[in-house]
Structure formats: C-alpha cells, structure tokens
Design brief:
Blueprint lengths: L4 H15 L6 E2 L5 E7 L3 E8 L4 E8 L10 E7 L7 H16 L4 H10 L9 H7 L7 H12 L4 H19 L4 H16 L2 H12 L4 H8 L4 H10 L9 H15 L2
Antiparallel strand pairs: 1-2, 2-3, 3-4, 4-5
Helix pairs in contact: 1-2, 6-8, 6-9
C-alpha cells in the first residue's frame, strides 16, 4: 500500500514528544526491523516495526550518562500488515501510543478524576475494548471486519458472546498461567478502570459471567484488586432469576449496549 504507516505513527509521536522535551526521532539499529528513538534527558522511547512478526512496538528505556540506551521495555504492541493494513488501523495504533507517552503529563489530572469518581470521566467504550482484544487474539481482526461488513459496526455484546467468550474459555483452560493470559487479565483491568458504564457491564456481566466456573477462577486469580472485588458481586447474579422490576432495567442496559 502507498500509505506509510511507520512514518505516520512516527510523526504523531514526534509532535507529542517534542512538546515534552524529547529530541527529534533518530534512526535506531534493530535486527527485528525499522526503528527510531526519541531521546530525553534520562529516558527514551522507541518505535519499532517488527518485519517478521508484523507488528508495531512502543518501547522505553533509561539512558546512561553518555545517552546510550539500556534494555528496551515493551510498552505496547499492535499487529499491522504492511500490505493490507489501512490508515484507520495506523490511526488507532498512533492514538494508543500517544495515550501512553502522554501518561506522565496527565497523572495529576487522572488523580483528580478518580477523586471525583464521576461516570463521565470514564471515556473508553466497548468498541474500543473489542479492538484492543486483537492484541490478545490476532484472529479477531478478520472477524471484526466481517462484523462491520455485515452490520455496519461491531455489536459489542453479541460479538463478545459469539467470538470472544470461547477464546477466553479455551485460553483459561489450556494456558491459565501463560503470557497470553497475563495480557488478557491486564487488559481487562485497564479497560475496567477506564471504561464507561457500558464497558464495565460488558466485562463483568457478558464476558466474565459467561465463563465456566473453572475458567472464571483462573481469570479472577490474576485480576487487579478493583475488578476482582467487583466480580465477586457480579458473579452472584450468574444464572439467577431477577425480580421483574430489576429485569426491566437490565433489558434497557442491554439494548443500549447493542446499539453501539
């Protein structure tokens, strides 16, 4: 494709990091593929496209007194096909990487939001969560595209039930202590922490409550304190009858979720 995804993402990162006092992107030698480094006073970020694995990585490291980088630590990974990847995919990757590098500047703001505890401070929705699941289950990308072709959008509740739930169940059964499971649990924690009320309901009522007891136990064991605590209560509603008046409220919530 003619679109230069690497250059696009590099440009977005450069705009942000220059404002933070980092230097211009410099070519970085890496056996995995094309890479650039943004150096600050004592830390640096790097953008890498791994040719063999077909993904972008955002990494960070500390710099010694001579400005030499140490071992790179991966901050985020996004699959991207150089031949079939679209501009919208690159934009999603760039936005995700920007959220990460902006983090240090927004700690105070985030703390203020947590103190207010208002639902409107949570802006991550179910559609964003579904896209992030591609990092855990790469095969979902094609299924997401098929969903968009058929329905014009992704129906989060139905998609989670039909396409994601089984994959999570199998993962929890086959590799409960594997790296893929750790990434899934970390993603669930992050999405629950920053998600709006719809996304929180999708995570607890649709995904986690849809798991079998053994699979749920394997996942819950690796969740953070907040989500682990809340799943103890939400799990009690699994397979239980609900009073009519509460049932009406639940239907209303489900309708809103499906409309996204």
């Amino acid at each position: 494709m003619d679109f230069n995804a690497f250059g696009f993402i590099e440009g977005k990162l450069s705009e942000e990091l220059l404002q933070q006092g980092f230097g211009q992107p410099q070519p970085l030698e890496d056996s995995a593929g094309k890479a650039v480094m943004f150096a600050g006073e004592s830390v640096a970020y790097s953008l890498l496209y791994d040719d063999k694995a077909g993904h972008f990585e955002l990494r960070s490291t500390s710099l010694d007194e001579d400005g030499v980088p140490g071992d790179w630590r991966r901050l985020a990974l996004w699959l991207f096909d150089q031949q079939e990847g679209e501009r919208s995919d690159a934009e999603s990757i760039a936005n995700d990487f920007l959220e990460i590098v902006r983090g240090p500047k927004q700690i105070k703001q985030a703390q203020q939001k947590r103190k207010r505890g208002k639902d409107e401070d949570r802006s991550v929705d179910p559609a964003f969560f579904v896209n992030r699941l591609v990092n855990i289950f790469p095969e979902l990308k094609e299924e997401i595209n098929e969903e968009k072709i058929l329905y014009g959008k992704v129906r989060p509740v139905t998609f989670i039930k039909e396409k994601v739930l089984g994959k999570c169940e199998n993962l929890a059964s086959a590799k409960p202590q594997g790296e893929q499971m750790k990434k899934l649990c970390a993603l669930l924690d992050d999405m629950y922490k920053n998600g709006d009320m719809d996304l929180r309901s999708v995570i607890t009522s649709v995904l986690l409550n849809g798991l079998s007891d053994p699979a749920f136990a394997a996942v819950q064991e690796q969740l953070g304190d907040e989500l682990k605590k809340n799943t103890k209560f939400s799990r009690r509603l699994k397979d239980k009858d609900i009073k009519p008046e509460k049932k009406k409220k639940q239907k209303k919530v489900e309708a809103r979720l499906e409309s996204r």
